Amino acid sequence: MDKSNIKILIVDDEADITDCLVMYFESEGYKALGAKNSSEAFKAVDDEKPDILLLDINLKEKYTGLDVLKRALIANPNAQAAIVTGLRDDKAYGDPI
Question: Of 33, 80, 91, 95, most Cβ neighbours within 10 A?
Fold first, then answer.
């Protein structure tokens, strides 16, 4: 399998985390994209239609990682995602999808 055809979008408002994960996935041969806010994430989703998304659910903005995921699934219905957070409150976002 040619990993260079697989696009991974990493979305996290912590720049160090985003940059580190982009570098890691690029070193593994993937096309990795980073976004540090929802505006950058929406643009990357629209322009690149990523295959895999690693999303921080809590972006400290009007939009969350779930909003980015919804838009990504419209752009690429076959996209896969993992949603993470540093938030410790299990009840903050309700039941898992």
Answer: 33
